[in-house]
Specification:
5-stranded parallel beta sheet, 14 strands, Rossmann fold, alpha/beta, 7-stranded mixed beta sheet, 29% helix, 27% strand, globular
Length: 312
């Protein structure tokens, strides 16, 4: 394979730099900025002709600008004659809009996939998609990593005894079961329903038992923390002792930080798939890095080796 190069937009430069540190290469030089009219300008400031290029950018705040940056940078790299361009998307926004579950609504996750392909991506590397079927929205190869081993190792470092893993809803139950098996712990599931399209949720009860146990609530993504907070209340009312939480994507939007500060959650661990802004850094939140995992996957893709060997 040709020479390896890694570029990034403005969404999470620190993660891209950390990935490059593990790869032992410099971050590619690209100019990305926004004009006063909100049009985004991109220029690749080095030769990428014939190179194997990886473009690292989560779809984090501001989400729509981050997506447009990726599309424009993919187009620029393709037109600069890169041999292959892989879109590395640690956090795939719009993942919750993965099906037509109401009349006259879009499947935005599919729309974004189409845009990425048309813009010039030859491959996608991502982490813990909200729904597995999103892989099938692409007509190009997709490698999906998981942060589960990283979060499991953090939970082990807490040296807890007598604990139960709790899924925030039935939709996440399968992944939560894997999490529980890795920790050799029982599983409980929160039964909930969404009350509106704006993210309102209502927790109805608990399937399983947490009485007298420490509880570890797990989810793929934490936005306003509404589901997580309600889950914490349910397990507290069900007799749990200390309550911990783990999520891959710490979006932490809106009132999330205030909600967490005033919640039953003793510690929340997230990864750095999206940046944790200074104003969101509170003692209750711990962050683990996924840079080494992405670097390992990039190296294997570049060398034509199996990505799954990372998890053996």
């Amino acid at each position: 394979m040709s020479e390896l190069a890694v570029f990034t937009g403005r969404a999470h430069q620190q993660l891209a730099e950390d990935i490059c540190t593990h790869l032992g290469i410099p971050l590619g030089n690209a100019e990305v900025f926004e004009f006063d009219n909100e049009n985004i300008f991109v220029k690749i400031n080095e030769n990428v002709r014939g190179k194997d290029v990886f473009l690292v950018q989560p779809f984090s705040t501001p989400v729509n600008a981050s997506i447009m940056e990726v599309l424009i940078m993919l187009d620029a790299l393709r037109r600069a004659s890169a041999q292959r361009v892989t879109a590395v998307i640690p956090y795939y926004a719009y993942g919750r809009t993965d099906k037509k579950d109401q009349p006259r609504v879009p499947i935005t996750a599919r729309l974004i996939a189409d845009c990425i392909t048309v813009a010039g991506a030859n491959r996608v590397l991502t982490m813990d998609l909200h729904a597995g079927q999103i892989q099938g929205f692409f007509n190009i190869p997709v490698d999906e990593l998981t942060a589960e081993p990283i979060l499991v190792n953090y939970v082990r470092s807490l040296k807890l005894t007598d604990f139960t893993v709790v899924a925030t809803d039935t939709g996440f139950a399968k992944k939560a079961r894997n999490f529980a098996e890795d920790l050799n712990a029982p599983l409980a599931i929160i039964e909930k329903r969404r009350t509106n399209n704006a993210g309102g949720v209502e927790s109805l009860g608990l399937i399983g038992s947490v009485e007298g146990q420490n509880a570890i609530i797990v989810d793929d993504e934490i936005g306003t923390a509404g589901s997580m907070i309600q889950a914490a209340q349910v397990v507290r009312e069900s007799g749990a002792r200390d309550i911990y939480a783990a999520a891959v994507h710490g979006v932490l939007s809106g009132p999330a930080i205030q909600n967490i500060q005033h919640s039953e959650i003793k510690k929340l661990v997230i990864t750095d798939t999206v940046p944790l802004l200074p104003e969101k850094r509170i003692p209750q939140i711990a962050q683990c890095s996924v840079a080494q995992l992405f670097a390992g996957a990039i190296a294997r893709i570049h060398e034509g080796r199996s990505v799954s060997e990372l998890f053996r």
